[in-house]
Amino acid sequence: RRVLLLGEGNFSFAAALSGARATHVVATCYESEEEAAGRGGAAQPCFAVAGAEVVFSVDCTKLKEHFAPGEREFDRIYFNFPHCGRKAGVVKNRQLLAGFFHGCAEVLAQEGEIHVALCNGQGGTPADQPRREWHNSWQIVAVAAGAGFILSHVHPFKAESIEGYKCTGYRSQDKSFCVEGALNHIFTRSTAPQCFTPMNYQTQLGSQKVSFQVPQVLVDKINRGFLEVNSSHPVRTIKERLSAGLSQAFPLQNISSCLPLLQQGHPGGVCHSNIFWVTLSPGEAPGTGKMSQGLADAVLCSHFGQDTAENGQEGCPDPEQFYLRPSLLPHAQAIMKKGAFSPGTIQVLSGPVFRKCRVTPHSMPAFHELLVVLAVSRGTENSCVQMLVENIKTTMNSLHQGVSGIKPSVSLQEAASFGTELSDFAAFERQLGEVQHFLCVGTEPDPPGACVGVIRAVPAEFKSHELVVVSASLNLDLLALLLCGISDWRMLWTWDRRFLRQFPEGELRLFKSFSLYPPSYVHDVSFWLPDGQGFDEVAFHTLARRVSGEMVVSIQLRDSFQQPGTGRRSLCYRVTFQSCDRALGCREAAEMQLHLREAIQQHLAVTLR
């Protein structure tokens, strides 16, 4: 390994590292050799460091200038207790760190690490005990993010365990820094920001292939293949384990491969603003008479205009419009209408579904649904529901055994007693049709936890009226979050390879974040609403998702004001930007805020204040 040491004072740290095998140490000092030689006491340097290359007059903010192109690939860079010298304040030291991280970006290997040791409290992270106020800290994670680095580990800096190490240079004097409680911060490169260009996607619709432009907010979520056979993604692991568990109790048929991505018309009862509408490429839109009599024909919705007044829609959507499927339930209904359904056999459907929703911790514009459908004799549906739930409970308990520290608690709650404060997932499921039970999963000691599924029991559309269809719809993404201890749903969609490396060969493990304490940036936006018109908050949240590339984690209404006399209404929202997997600096977040202001004025017809 090539190791670069910056800001060495007496080179005692270099001497401790230089004995390591297969390590080439380059130890540098900011001062010239003459200046360093003039120091006395404990700060007096030992230039003869066996096995190390010693370089003087190295500015940590201009590293590219000191190393030739062939000498820049350092595997590790160490900077112990950086300081501008004398009584420099936090602002100057932040500037020093900012220049240092930008310098490292030019000389660090792609998989390299940056180790920065700071005195207790300086970093400004929750790892500091006690923690300083944010404005009085060096804000190291936010500063590093500006240069494209994320904090991946933090642990105590144990100076006493480093043989011969003497920490000196406090305020440019022959004094030691207070190393009690000091922390070593380890940074790694972040994945680069994704630049998603408009994307056309081709899919099967009836008997022909059609293409459409993917909504910008979904460009990174279309065709990711998480459920494919060669995938080790946790959502596929959970899907396979649940299917295997169900097959122990019932005959099982998997019919997910032939499900169309698009649906046509408008699903009855579903709010128009929750749907991702798409337009087929010119000349490709088939008329309903030209569509095949296969599954795509069966999911053509005929409830045009149904519940439009209830859902706040001014008019009926064009029946020739197309939209990305928000649920797999219409496909199950299509199978029943065709008669391709064997009573007593569980039908398993799975695939991604897409729903416009608000920005909340567990609201996802795209997730993977597992739909289990079973036709049973009338009068036995309640016992079948219990069998399904017990089977799911057993599978979940077996899943958690491989995930240390996570013990799920599965509960079934009556829909009538669930309350009015529903999650976006539960509320949308109610729009799709009557729900008998909500399936909730919590992690002890906090049951009942989040709603991850719904249970329905409805009369079957068969010639025989003696059958009832029991269905269970599960949100696989929410299950993955709860079972693997993942705090942010966006992590499931990350492009960073470090995520899937934690789940080799489909194993479920407790997830360890590779981006610790990501900084957040708060901005406010206020605007006047158009006269006499309402405000579509879901459209506002979807717009924020799109312009920020899913970097918005919270949108809170701060104020609603109605101007006396004119009756004009103004809203003020607080928008919080934060990434879960890559570096997000304050400048980039400020640019996102500007783009958001422009977008809401252009697309929502509001007047900015």
Automatic annotation (TrEMBL):
EC number(s) per entry: 6.1.1.20
Gene Ontology BP terms: rRNA base methylation; translation
Catalytic activity: tRNA(Phe) + L-phenylalanine + ATP = L-phenylalanyl-tRNA(Phe) + AMP + diphosphate + H(+)
Keywords from the named record: Aminoacyl-tRNA synthetase, ATP-binding, Ligase, Mitochondrion, Nucleotide-binding, Protein biosynthesis, Transit peptide
Domain FDX-ACB: 516-609
Domain of life: Eukaryota
Name of this chain's protein: phenylalanine--tRNA ligase
Lineage, broadest ranks: Eukaryota, Metazoa, Chordata, Craniata, Vertebrata
